[in-house]
Amino acid sequence: MISAAGRDMAARLAQLVSGGTASGGEPITAGQGAADARRALEAWCADRPVEAICSALMEIGVPVAPVRKIPEVAKDPHLWEREMLVKMEDAVAGELYVPGVTIKMSKTPGRVGPVPTPGQHTDEVLGRLLGYDKDKLGELRESGVIA
Q1: What's the whole-model pTM score?
Q2: CA distances (Å), 22 to each of 28, 44, 73, 106, 117, in order?
Q3: Element (H or E) spanning 18, and its range?
Q4: What whole-number distance in Å separates Cα of residue 115 and Cα of residue 13?
Q5: Which residues, at least 6 apart from 68, have a Cβ–Cβ distance to it below 8 Å?
Q6: Which helix (H) or strand (E) element contains residue 42?
Q7: Angle, helices 34-46/7-18, rounded to nearest 10 degrees
Q8: What was the pLDDT predicted at 141?
């Protein structure tokens, strides 16, 4: 993800991509020349590994970050250290990776609860919210409407 917002950043990006021959510094948006500029940027990126692209753009002050696939994200030690991903046991699927608590507060820390099993809260929801009694729940269960 490249974010060259504003004329100064756009000019630095254009200079880098063109090998020093570009001028102007118009952001790549809709309009004349935008398609050419976008193609030049795509061609420049296609010739380089992600790490080289990020390094070159950070060096000239253009915000950039790799867009990663889920397996890459799941292997990032920073996310595990910050507990942005946590392992949970699921009664049906076994071990799952789930999002952790994203907002960290020292006095009121959040927590990720257990993964509910199918039908675990059916009686509570239908009883408390809809007013179904045990007989009604039994009828629904017998007829196969609920588990």
Answers
A1: 0.54
A2: 13, 13, 36, 50, 60
A3: helix 7-18
A4: 46
A5: 76
A6: helix 34-46
A7: 60
A8: 93
What's the confidence (pLDDT) of residue 4? 82
Q: Which of 25, 30, 33, 20 is nearest to 9 (CA)?
A: 25
Tokens found for residue 134: 């045990």
Of residues 147 and 94, more confidently modeled? 94
- The string of pLDDT tens digits covering residues 80-95 is 999 999 999 888 889 9
Distance CA 55, CA 47 (A): 14
Two tokens at 107? Answer: 């006095």
C-alpha 17/C-alpha 37 separation (Å) is 9
What are the tokens at 26? 């118009």
Residue closest to 53 by CA, chosen among 61, 67, 64, 43: 64
Total Cβ atoms within 10 A of residue 93: 9
CA 34/CA 41 separation, integer angstroms: 10
The burial class, CB within 10 Å (0-12 / 13-18 / 19+), for 17 is: buried
* In the chain, domain spans: 7-59, 68-115, 116-147
Reading the block at residue 43, the tokens are: 């061609």
Q: How far apart are CA 85 and CA 137, in angstroms?
A: 37
